[in-house]
């Protein structure tokens, strides 16, 4: 005996189509949010200083406090990028609000050109909202020829408003840290670096504010 073919009510079929459409829309929305999450998070960090993200400004401070603060500089290379990367000087002491210029130095020790991009942060992380950079090499694609050495300046000042924050009012030291990563497709295929002498020494630590 054959089973009768089930009859689906038109309203039920319509409900199923609506449910299926909603599921597809939800899935597409989640995918879109995943792609947008990184740039939105980066924008949030830049605006708020969250996670030690420094601020980018176009003008110098118009107020300088009679109070010293020491800025320490850290440099790292990751992802197999064949570079020597270091600050020209390990620290500098400036007045809060004083604009200063320092430099990092990068050298390609591989036998072929290679390219990298730097990320950065400061510690303590709360200080990120008050560490203002007028000039910086961060997030800029940089390509170095074999043996090439490059001077990478950073112009910055610490916002005087930092002393108004209870958690930072007695701060004495801030550490600025950069990490260079290889740009996609720019990593060398071999791992035996060939050091080549080249490049001029960099003079840094020059105060340009006052």
Question: What order do the helices and strands come in, and which of them pair?
Answer:
Layout: H1 10-48, E1 55-56, E2 68-77, E3 83-87, E4 91-95, E5 100-108, E6 114-123, E7 131-135, E8 142-144, E9 149-158, E10 173-182, E11 206-207
Parallel strand pairs: 1-7, 2-10
Antiparallel strand pairs: 2-4, 3-5, 5-9, 5-11, 6-8, 6-10, 7-9
Question: In words, what does this structure look like?
Answer:
This protein has 210 residues and is of the alpha+beta class. It folds into 2 domains: 9-48; 55-207, Sandwich (Ctag/Cox11 (Pfam 04442)), CATH 2.60.370.10. 19% of the residues lie in helices and 34% in strands. The protein has one helix at residues 10-48, and strands spanning 55-56, 68-77, 83-87, 91-95, 100-108, 114-123, 131-135, 142-144, 149-158, 173-182, 206-207. Strands 1, 3, 5, 7, 9 and 11 form a 6-stranded mixed beta sheet that branches. The protein has a 5-stranded mixed beta sheet with strand order 4-2-10-6-8, with no helix packed on it. The radius of gyration is 26 Å and the shape is elongated. The termini are far apart. The model is unreliable at 23-52 and 188-210 (pLDDT under 50).
């Amino acid at each position: 005996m054959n089973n009768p073919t089930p009859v689906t009510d038109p309203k039920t079929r319509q409900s199923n189509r609506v449910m299926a459409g909603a599921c597809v829309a939800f899935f597409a929305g989640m995918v879109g949010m995943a792609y947008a999450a990184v740039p939105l998070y980066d924008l949030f960090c830049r605006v708020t200083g969250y996670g030690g993200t420094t601020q980018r400004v176009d003008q110098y401070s118009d107020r300088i406090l009679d109070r010293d603060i020491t800025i320490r500089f850290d440099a790292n290379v990751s992802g197999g990028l064949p570079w020597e990367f270091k600050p020209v000087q390990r620290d500098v002491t400036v007045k809060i609000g004083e604009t200063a210029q320092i430099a990092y130095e990068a050298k390609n020790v591989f036998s072929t050109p290679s390219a990298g991009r730097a990320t950065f942060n400061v510690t303590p992380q709360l200080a990120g909202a008050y560490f203002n950079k007028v000039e910086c090499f961060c997030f800029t694609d940089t390509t170095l020829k074999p043996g090439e050495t490059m001077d990478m300046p950073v112009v910055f000042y610490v916002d005087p408003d930092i002393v108004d924050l209870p958690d930072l009012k007695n701060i004495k030291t801030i550490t600025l840290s950069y990490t260079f990563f290889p740009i996609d497709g720019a990593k060398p295929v071999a791992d035996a670096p060939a050091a080549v002498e080249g490049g001029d020494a960099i003079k840094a630590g020059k105060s340009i504010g006052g």
